[in-house]
């Protein structure tokens, strides 16, 4: 187990593998509203805390009301979203927040920094996670812990992201778990 890896669950196979590891936290991606209860029951049974990505839950709106519903009914450790209203709602409900940003160019980086400063999430997830320059700049300018995610599939890329300031690495690549 690597303390800086945050397994990203995209499928039932991922979920099954996760429960067979020593990890005690994960990110739940790409799920269906009808599966949330059984997934959360299984994770709770294994004492695994979950960050739920609101934007990727199929069958429900991706807004602050969905966020409130998820928090009140399933009590995840945290909420992941690209939407500031969702992050603000989760913060108001005393839930850990992960604001996901996509840094494609210098304009997107500047805009992301402005939003991070305004929203003040607990964490910011920078995609693609191989964007080490963006990780460094966001660390320096926002005082927010960075999670690197996306396109990371080697140990070397994990190490580089951590060396450049990432606190965690989200990956659905089970070989890195």
Compact summary:
The protein has helices at 12-19, 36-45, 64-74, 84-92, 106-119, 132-142, 155-163; strands at 5-9, 25-28, 31-32, 49-53, 57-58, 78-81, 96-102, 123-127, 145-149, 166-171. The protein is of the alpha/beta class and 177 residues long. The protein has a single domain, classed as Aldolase class I (TIM Barrel, Alpha-Beta Barrel).
Walkthrough of the structure:
The protein is an alpha/beta fold. It has a single domain (5-176), classed as TIM Barrel, CATH 3.20.20. Helices cover 41% and strands 25% of the residues. It has helices at residues 12-19, 36-45, 64-74, 84-92, 106-119, 132-142, 155-163, and strands spanning 5-9, 25-28, 31-32, 49-53, 57-58, 78-81, 96-102, 123-127, 145-149, 166-171. β7, α5 and β8 (123-127) form a beta-alpha-beta unit. α3 (64-74) runs parallel beside α4 (84-92) and α5 packs parallel to α6. It is globular, with a radius of gyration of 15 Å. Keywords: Glycerol metabolism, RNA-binding, Transcription, Transcription regulation. Regulates expression of the glpD operon. In the presence of glycerol 3-phosphate (G3P) causes antitermination of transcription of glpD at the inverted repeat of the leader region to enhance its transcription. Binds and stabilizes glpD leader mRNA. InterPro entries: Aldolase_TIM, GlpP. It comes from Staphylococcus saprophyticus subsp. saprophyticus (strain ATCC 15305 / DSM 20229 / NCIMB 8711 / NCTC 7292 / S-41).
């Amino acid at each position: 187990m690597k303390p800086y890896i945050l397994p990203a669950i995209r499928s039932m196979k991922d979920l099954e593998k996760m429960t067979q590891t020593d990890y005690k936290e994960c990110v739940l991606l790409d799920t269906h509203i009808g599966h949330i209860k059984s997934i959360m029951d299984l994770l709770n049974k294994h004492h695994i805390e979950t960050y739920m990505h609101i934007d990727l839950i199929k069958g429900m709106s991706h807004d602050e009301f969905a966020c409130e519903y998820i928090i009140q009914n399933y009590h995840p450790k945290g909420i992941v979203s690209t939407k500031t209203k969702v992050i603000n709602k989760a913060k108001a409900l005393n839930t850990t927040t992960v604001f996901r940003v996509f840094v494609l160019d210098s304009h997107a980086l500047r805009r992301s920094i402005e939003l991070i400063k305004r929203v003040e999430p607990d964490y910011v997830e920078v995609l693609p996670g191989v964007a080490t320059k963006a990780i460094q700049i966001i660390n320096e300018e926002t005082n927010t812990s960075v999670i690197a995610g996306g396109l990371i599939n080697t140990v070397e890329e994990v190490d580089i992201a951590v060396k450049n300031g990432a606190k965690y690495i989200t990956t659905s690549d089970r070989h890195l778990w």
